[in-house]
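::Encoded backbone::
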Amino acid sequence: MRKDNTQINVAFPSPLKRRQADFSGFVCSDGICRVLPSPLKRGEGGERVRVDCRSRAFAQIAALIFAAIFSASFASAGSGGGGTVAVPFLKMDMGARYYGMAGAATAFADDVTGMTFYNPAALGRVQSLQISGSTYKNAIDMKHTYGALAVPVGFLSLAGNKPLSLGISFYMFDKGDISSRSIGDDISFALTYGENIAAHTWDFMGSSSEVNHYLGASVKYIKSTLPLPGSGDVTGNAFAFDAGYQIVADNRFGIGFAVKNVGTKIKYLEEADPLPSTMSAGLFFTLVDYENMRWDLSGDVIYHIKERENRIRAGTEAVFFNTLAVRGGIKFMEEIKEEFTLGFGLRLFGFEVDLGAVLNPQLNGDNVYQAGISYKFPIKKEENNYQKDEKKRSDYKEYKERQVRQAQEQLERNANPILYQ
């Protein structure tokens, strides 16, 4: 047996891809072998993996930039004077899934529809090619139509953590007709970026959670048309910017922030009107997460900067067998008191068909319904949280057993060095 405390490095394969060695080696003394600590952090299976300092630094810089944008938007609220804004269609809730949840999706949004209307950071959570679209008419015969596409870019990452995603979308708003004459229409086009900029573990009260940071931003072109007295019409144009940030732990709890429609004013004739800029903050958490059921709660606080108005939203979604979704929500501090929402969804073969409705007795039965359809291409099958937890426990058990076997083998080598020459 060696008495000089010589370090013996032992190499063996890791059970997970792209992982480093589970430990750096052994130091054996007086028949006892101990594992040398490694400057690597723990991975999902108990092994040590390297921390990407580039992604962590990028996340810190992104958080500071977003905080500056959020603060600047809040500071500009005082200049609005509680006045009117142009193109108010940009404030409307779209996407039947979130429509049924009262639009409480700043933190909860995780798909192509969410990136378009609620938080561009949702694009960072998109794992496969997604297409979504919807069209509906509201109670006063105004028509809304939108379409969106999200594409993960597997070869490009700005933060160095995971590949980013890009999205494009359009939103058309037909204001209807009066005496066979169009009142006008509005349209916006958006290009969106989203990325998982950092991931780390968080140890709290004896449990460990995987925390992911998502950043997103959009640039928009907006065109609006209004009729002139007599005949003809006038057109105004504007450019706008959206930014969003989400922090999600184990896909069970998350917080989100978003600033939307910050940009130039729209000028039709002589006077220019500001865009309906908004700030929102939200959170979601999972009440139930079993193999065949998941139940989430979500809440948002929304501030309309120029109008100096606040809105509070609360929503819920329960998904059974990853197929049937039931949703509900309530909107507080609305112009027509409180509004209740209800929604349903059906997921089959990558398709998701959603229906959402606003139920308000003061509308005299003219409740507003919205339907939408989306498709997610099956690039990689995602494990639910129940399956992930089982895999973590299994991997960690295997890791500990392998660690014991390696220590025993090293002891045998030290006790009988001739047999292993």
User: Anything to note?
Assistant: Helices lie at 53-75, 96-99, 112-117, 385-415. Confidence is low (pLDDT under 50) at residues 1-52, 76-81. The first strand starts at residue 7 and ends at 8. The chain has four helices and 23 strands.
